[in-house]
Specification:
two-stranded antiparallel ribbon, 6 helices
Length: 184
């Protein structure tokens, strides 16, 4: 009896602190979410390793991962190979390269980007497709403040819930509720 050894190439696995974003990235890539950007936005810039659209997608991934500035991409997106791979990106550019791409954008590029975002909003936003004639659109508005450090950007000292003099951010969060979100 002969033994057959099958050689299976090992699949590359990467650890990620953003596993839920990896799932989202895979889904967005499957549905072609970035196609309006790729069709409309053409920032004139020399391409060495990454196209300008890929750099904008890297910034988008960074925003989803919670970056507050372009300089934070090196600490979040660039080091997370699984995150960039699931969004279909070959890697992540250096922060200076990303900033140069934003600087290279002209007024027409910004207008094209705004139009592409408007297309995405119209295509994927469920509130725009809601028929007010058939049912009311319920909006959930949350005005509760979020506690934050005294040194945090946008934080103010004031009344936060039961604490009379605490520091925090005053944010307004609005979401469409009801049937739109799968519950009644």
């Amino acid at each position: 009896m002969s033994q057959h050894s099958t050689s299976v190439s090992p699949q590359k696995w990467h650890d990620s602190g953003h596993a839920s974003l990896c799932l989202l990235g895979n889904y967005l890539r499957q549905i072609g979410f970035f196609e309006p950007l790729e069709k409309r936005v053409h920032i004139q810039q020399k391409v060495l390793k990454y196209s300008s659209i890929q750099k904008l997608e890297m910034l988008f991934v960074g925003l989803l991962a919670g970056i507050k500035a372009v300089s934070h991409t090196g600490m979040t997106v660039r080091v997370d190979r699984a995150l960039t791979a699931t969004f279909g990106l070959p890697g992540c550019a250096d922060q200076s390269v990303l900033a140069d791409t934003l600087d290279a954008a002209q007024d027409t590029d910004v207008a094209d980007l705004q139009a592409a975002i408007a297309d995405l909003f119209a295509q994927y936003n469920r509130a725009c497709k809601h028929s007010i004639d058939q049912e009311l659109l319920v909006l959930d508005v949350d005005l509760s403040p979020l506690p934050a450090s005294t040194h945090a950007e946008g934080s103010e000292r004031g009344y936060l819930g039961r604490s009379r003099s605490r520091t925090g951010r005053k944010l307004v969060r609005v979401r469409a509720a009801g049937k739109l979100c799968g519950r009644r």
